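Bench log. Compound arrived from synthesis this morning; before running ITC I wanted a structural hypothesis for how iron/sulfur cluster sits in the protein. Inputs:
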Amino acid sequence: MQENIIIAASEAQSHRHSIGRSTWQQQLSHAIRDPQTLCERLRLNRDWLAGAQVGHELFEVCVPEAYLKRIAYADINDPLLRQVIPLGEEALTPAGYVVDPLEEADHRPAKGLIHKYAGRVLLIASPNCAINCRYCFRRHFPYSDNSPSRAQWQEALDYLRNDTTIHEAILSGGDPLAASDRQLAWLVEQLESIPHLKRLRIHTRLPVVIPDRVDDALLGWLASTRLQKVVVLHINHANEIDQAVVDACTNLKQAGATLLNQSVLLRDVNDSTATLAALSERLFEAGILPYYLHVMDPVQGAAHFDVPDEEARALVAKLRDYLPGFLMPRLVREIPGKGSKTPL
Ligand code: SF4
């Protein structure tokens, strides 16, 4: 890989671009969405372009400026870049890697709603993401069939009203925070009118990718709901947590949210004990508790990120030598049809 880098590694350094005072929506609309611009902005060798184009045609590249500025120049091995750069390998179709690895298609009783586990349901609040992670298990998800309008949400809301065993609604996506605050405030208002619902969980990467997403409008509806709030962030490497992310997390906590993190164990991103230990330490500094470390779901296009279970177990066993118990993420795999995540 090294020979493909046009600038010597010693010259590589983090770069800081000003993103001015633009809103999160403007930042999202200006995200980099083509491999050529990504390679040029990061001064990568043009040799990467052909493969990047192949991956991009399978799953569009999307990297906002606020995330880009945390990536080192001219370093194809940068752990944040590895998560977002499309590669030719994504066209490979090894046995066992499929388009719907969690078989979610079997658990959709209403448009926009996935009910897999007892007591909680997942609502697909937005089909969009602020970043396209190459290992995403929903990279082939049919979002166009599962993005309800307000009127269409009624079916999902009725399902929730009629099942008193459901105590928690999980906003998911895409990234649920890619929806507008007007839409989210409306949806949360509908949810809190259901008496047996106690908790609102939000699975999001947006406060990490574009920290300005955590603005007054978001904090307003979040702080005012009667539901207990849990925000589950998705951070895979300590370098993803800059000061802007820390500030966004502080604001989420002040709005009453408990902050947890789930990571995915990824080859050439975070597959070392030192990297995972640094991630847990940095998460805690930002007020976030490590929750899950997922082995990757076998989604087509992402096999090159795979870390075998035995290696994952050995890494986590070693991690216990470095971290107190409360900073240890739980190593899990999601197995279709099981009633919960499966510890490894
Ligand atoms: S933010 Fe989450 S849902 Fe969106 S591409 Fe990344 S992993 Fe997938």
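What the model suggests: Residues 1-18 have pLDDT under 50 and may be disordered. The two ends are 32 Å apart (CA to CA).
ITC booked for Thursday regardless.
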